[in-house]
Amino acid sequence: MKTTINQVKHYVGQDVTIGAWLANKRSSGKIAFLQLRDGTGFMQGVVVKSAVGDEAFDQAKGLTQESSMHVTGTIVEDARSPFGFEMQVKEIEIIHEAVDFPITPKEHGTEFLMDHRHLWLRSKRQHAVMQIRNEIIRATYQFFNEQGFIKIDPPILTGSSAEGTTELFHTQYFDEEAYLSQSGQLYMEAAAMAFGKVFSFGPTFRAEKSKTRRHLIEFWMMEPEMAFMDHEESLVVQEEYVSFIAQSVLENCRLELDTLDRDIEKLKEVQAPFPRITYTEAIELLEKLGFDDIKWGEDFGAPHETAIAEHFDKPVFITHYPKDIKAFYMKPDPENPDVVLCADLIAPEGYGEIVGGSQRIDDLELMKQRYDEHNLTGDAYKWYLELRQYGSVPHSGFGLGLERTVAWFAGVEHVRETIPFPRLLNRLYP
What's the whole-model pTM score? Predict the structure, then answer.
């Protein structure tokens, strides 16, 4: 019976064959312990000399790291193993013998590992991180499908900037200039006017020359947009969504969290509702904490966000930022037009902003005014303005950065480990 490591629990006491690679090995006298991996998980294979004979035992002892094989044996329960099962090996059929695999079971520098990212992905730690990433994606689709959203895919090549910034990658689109998308939001607003509740999940690009542990040049964003929904209603969706994916990771990735030594008690606290403070209250809090380097009207840096988050056991919403430091499309607060109906969700443990969202301007004349203020002229934004011209309604949306969320849930320090092939300021290889 041919199977995979993640399915061996169904074959206890039976002989199975698994296609696997050798992650590591050790031997103790007349027993060899093979650390096997097959892409679905890691499992120990035990080769006993008296059971397989001298030739097969010598073959097992001679296996080199990352050699591929078909290994056959009996599945048994193993209470000592975090995985819970192991194989009593009977036969090994070598497919390919690997020679001088560069990432050996010792400490390697970050740059060396990043140069060998295509091979580093095979490690137990990276496998755990990618499994958590996959679970967040799976749970995202489940949450929004169950909530009646439809997935709409915005373009990656665009004729304008979503945020009105200059941090864009330019490219030539035949005889006109184009950009790699920094957000699908504007297109999702158009989709919401057609389908009501929509979400996208795809790559975005920011030409920021940043080297912090929170930044990537290419990253993935989940962006819902909801017609007939105000800012407060959107906040409820945001906290319910983040709670849902956190609890899904806890339920379905316990082995991976253990592999990463993640403190799961921290994740258990990620349950709605989340505390909320206004930007003004956050400034006052920072002043009390001795931060004299930030004034009202300035954006928060990483130390400010971390200090604010430390006062709460859960993620915290910072709402009602000053209009002048936020995007042109955010709706002003009717009670105070100097601030906008928006919120950033700040994760605890120093992981910073995970979600950014707002209610969008739905008034045509006000949006025209914003166009003038931000010099958004020409045909590139004409279609976006027309969304307010033909059946405009109150609508809200938000964006969640996948890699920052993976880093937070997994307890990983740097986002470069949370995407298969990271694109950084100094890295386009491999």
Answer: 0.96
Give tens-digit pLDDT for 38-61: 999 999 999 999 999 999 999 999
Contact between 228 and 394 under an 8 Å Cβ cutoff? The reply is yes
| Kind and range of the H or E run holding 17 | strand 15-28
Handedness of CA 416, 151, 137, 344 (dihedral sign): positive
Query: By the 8 A CB rule, do 158 and 202 touch?
Result: no
Count of CB atoms situated within 10 Å of the CB of 429: 10
118-417: in CATH 3.30.930.10: yes
Instruction: Report the alpha-carbon distance of residue 306 to residue 343 in Å, rounded.
Output: 16
Domain segments of the chain: what residues? 5-96, 118-417
Pick the CATH number of 5-96 from 3.40.50.300, 3.90.230.10, 2.40.50.140, 1.20.140.10: 2.40.50.140
Q: Each residue of 233-273: pLDDT tens digit?
A: 999 999 999 999 999 999 999 999 999 999 999 999 999 99
Amino acid present at 380: A
With beta carbons less than 8 A apart as the criterion, state whether 40 and 58 touch.
no
Nearest to 51, CA basis, from 76, 68, 77: 76
